[in-house]
Design a protein that fits this description.
The chain is α/β, with parallel strands linked by helices and 212 residues long. The chain is 52% helix and 11% strand. It has a six-stranded parallel beta sheet.
Length: 212
């Protein structure tokens, strides 16, 4: 039975909205999904609809996706935000992370990737697609690599996080328990002075820690 998850999709392209709806049909009850052509239209209905997850494009008229995300994060901190956009340049990704979005994937992603992203952020974790790893490769190659702060195991976990792997997947790669991975991540967060995976990725970009 399709999941009854309240999802809002904000994009100014009708055909894209239609395509997203069709892609989500096997997974979610469409009666719980609403589409909006602009941020202004969305905020006029947000208090009545009360979405759990919001999918946002970046390039939109009147109010761009980052402005929508920023307003959402201030006024509705419990809502999960997934940026779904063709704009995956370094500046856009870093700004989205700074705002505190829960996920970021490319419009070129497959339906399964979209489903995994929605499910992951709905369950309280962060999700960043393969495009983020590509950005990390480009940026990390131009920045000084700092490894003195972290153990070899911690560096492995940082790199896997940057690749978008969840703790369970990292545990399988390293042949350790997911609980051990979480313990390492807490130590990494403490050393970085951060509190979540999105901030870990941002920190890694800025300090050249990721070398993929």
């Amino acid at each position: 039975m399709p999941r009854q998850l309240k999802i809002a999709i904000i994009d100014d392209h009708p055909l894209f909205l239609m395509g997203i709806g069709m892609a989500m049909m096997p997974y979610y009850d469409l009666n719980y999904i609403r589409t909006f052509s602009s941020g202004k239209q969305f905020f006029a209905s947000v208090n009545d609809f009360k979405p759990e997850v919001v999918l946002i494009d970046i390039v939109m008229p009147e109010m761009n996706g980052l402005q929508v995300a920023e307003r959402l994060r201030r006024g509705y901190p419990d809502v999960k935000i997934l940026v779904l956009s063709a704009e995956t340049d370094e500046t856009t990704v870093l700004k989205a992370m700074e705002i505190g979005v829960n996920g970021f994937i490319s419009k070129a992603s497959q339906p399964d990737d979209l489903y995994n992203a929605i499910e992951t952020i709905a369950d309280g974790a962060d999700y960043f697609g393969c495009d983020i790893s590509m950005i990390l490769k480009e940026v990390a190659s131009t920045r000084k690599f700092r490894e003195d702060m972290f153990s070899q195991r911690e560096l492995e976990i940082i790199r896997y996080c940057a690749d978008g792997l969840m703790s369970k997947e990292i545990a399988e790669k390293l042949c350790i328990s997911a609980r051990t991975v979480e313990g390492h991540k807490l130590n990494i967060f403490r050393k970085m002075g951060i509190s979540n995976t999105a901030e870990l990725i941002k920190y890694s970009i800025k300090n050249g820690i990721v070398r993929l």
